[in-house]
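Take a sample.
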Amino acid sequence: MLDIIQAGEALSGSIATIAMTFSIGLTVGLTGAVAPGPTLLATVNSSLKDGWLAGPKVAAGHALIEIVIFLLIVKGLAVTMQQYSRSIALIGGLALIAFGILTMRDSKSATMASSGDGSYTNPYLAGFLTSAANPYFWIWWLSIGSVLIVSGLEAGLIVAAIFMIGHWSADFGWYLLVSSSLERGRSLLSPENYRRILGLCGIFLILFGIYYLGSGIGVVG
């Protein structure tokens, strides 16, 4: 009977860990997805041609390069970074706070207006190339993204993968919302609502950064 109880507690703890990891991946991923940048503009431009399907197509191209990054972190950087978990927690917390402040600042004047640039006719290619060419994308992954994946790896590869699933759910969900909104004449996502969402994401990043920074200080202590 004791073994059954312990197994049940372990299963309950695993489910809670997976649910929390997915939620963090979803929410943190959303903060990156909604930020103004070339991938968002590529979604806007592609939506004018392909309608609501443009969003998932751009997100798929975006996800392709992130799969490569995820594998590189797991295979090449995880062991090294785990040796410096305390420093990484502190750096990650500061990075989250900095990104949150910048996101809140940008939310005051952010826009999803089309750039009128038709350079990327293929939405899959647009998602891949605009991500690869965006400095913000690489800074995000070298700071926040890599730190959170390494944290997930401490609980196992599956937990780290769950984080990525949550992250991609945010990307696909957001870009689908953008393309669907544009197809419906922006009735679903007005500029004001977009700025509000971006501002809330900034607040979340700051709060999560404070929490993450606190956890790092606790480990050091």
Notes: Residues 1-11 have pLDDT under 50 and may be disordered. Residues 102 and 202 are 7 Å apart (CA to CA). The two ends are 39 Å apart (CA to CA).
